[in-house]
Design brief:
Strand order of the largest sheet of chain B: 1-2-3
Number of helices of chain A: 4
Order of helices and strands of chain A: HEHHEEH
Largest interface: A-B, 28 and 36 residues
Largest sheet of chain A: 3 strands, antiparallel
Helix content of chain A: 40-55%
Shape of chain A: elongated
Number of domains of chain A: 1
Order of helices and strands of chain B: HHHHHHEEEHH
Radius of gyration of chain B: 28 Å
Strand order of the largest sheet of chain A: 1-3-2
CATH superfamily of chain A: Winged helix-like DNA-binding domain superfamily/Winged helix DNA-binding domain
Oligomer: heterodimer
Structural class of chain B: mainly alpha
Number of domains of chain B: 2
Structural class of chain A: alpha+beta
Helix content of chain B: 55-70%
Largest sheet of chain B: 3 strands, antiparallel
Shape of chain B: elongated
Distance between the termini of chain A: 54 Å
CATH topology of chain A: Arc Repressor Mutant, subunit A
């Protein structure tokens, strides 16, 4: 598990783009219910993600038939809804991961360069 | 330690308040879906409260309106249908059409009575093609009775079609089809 050092710096829009992938990957690793998934996201360092973002994202994945759900009785309260990826979910995950890795392969070399203090003048300037 | 031991009555009440507040924002979702979401949120909030306390669990939930909006998008793949807009539209449209129909006859009656306060006789007022039937107005010593002047079926069809558009009701269909294909998984 990663530490929680990289917190409260995540662009919510950026996170939204990969949240589905993260959820599918975590669910592929282990069936989980809503709050457990939130805890697992916190454990990997996304401690500023709100529970209210994760639960609708799960509902969306279920509507898209990328995850299936089943109720599992709990000794500490009412039955919990556990999610796991469907075949379509695994396919979407594989495709998404490929796309994401290709994207960061392009973006990372650019973004990892030091930030200049000011932009260089245009190349056409005399 | 189990949730039962951890959660106080106050915590449970706060959780219920959040659950039902969210439910009130989900009024455009089908009943079954709302019930499923209430159940799931309650379970998650209880687990979170047992973990970090009810206050923190509710804080982490964020804005309930935003959450509800995301649930609606999750359900319908975009802005969902609005039954309230549909209802308001139907009320306004029928009120307007009946008002228009009555205003027409009232104008005729006012003119006729102004000309002769003790008017007696039968008058025929032509309707509006595809909108209103013809009217037969019977005056007896200035008192009027009316037969006809009802809205034609095309008006009802148009109003209901516009109500469907106004409330985006077509968005119900894919969601229903999807739920049917999944079977009753949410209970």
């Amino acid at each position: 598990m990663y530490s929680s050092q990289v917190t409260s710096t995540h662009d919510p829009q950026l996170l939204k783009g990969v949240l589905s992938l993260l959820l599918l990957q975590l669910l592929a690793q282990r069936e989980s219910y809503g709050y457990e998934l939130v805890q697992r996201l916190h454990e990997i360092g996304l401690s500023d993600i709100s529970d209210g973002t994760v639960y609708p994202a799960l509902a969306r994945l279920e509507r898209e038939s990328r995850v299936s759900a089943r109720l599992v009785s709990s000794h500490s309260g009412p039955a919990r809804k556990y999610y796991r990826p469907t075949e379509a979910g695994y396919a979407a995950l594989a495709e998404g991961v490929t796309g994401w890795l290709a994207f960061i392969e392009i973006a990372n070399p650019v973004l990892s360069q030091p930030i200049p203090n000011q932009p260089a003048p245009p190349t056409e300037e005399v | 330690m189990t949730e039962t031991l951890t959660l106080t009555l106050k915590d449970r009440m706060r959780i219920e308040r959040a659950v039902w507040t969210l439910d009130s924002y989900l009024r455009n979702l089908p009943r079954k879906s709302r019930i499923a979401k209430r159940r799931e949120l309650r379970v998650n909030l209880r687990a979170a409260s047992a973990d970090v306390g009810a206050h923190e669990a509710l804080r982490r939930l964020g804005n309930l309106r935003t959450m509800a909006a995301e649930y609606v998008v999750a359900e319908y793949g975009g802005p969902g249908p609005s039954w309230i807009v549909t209802t308001y539209f139907l009320i306004a449209a029928f009120y307007f059409m009946f008002w228009l129909s009555n205003a027409r006859i009232d104008a005729f009656r006012s003119g006729a009575i102004a000309a002769n306060p003790h008017l007696t006789g039968v008058f025929h007022v032509t309707g509006v093609a595809y909108v209103l039937t013809n009217d037969t107005l019977t005056f007896a010593n200035g008192k009027m009775t009316e037969i006809g002047g009802t809205l034609l079926p095309l008006v009802y069809v148009c109003i209901f079609a516009l109500a469907v558009l106004a409330g985006r009701l077509w968005r119900v269909v894919p969601a229903l089809r999807h739920r049917r294909s999944l079977g009753v998984s949410n209970g």
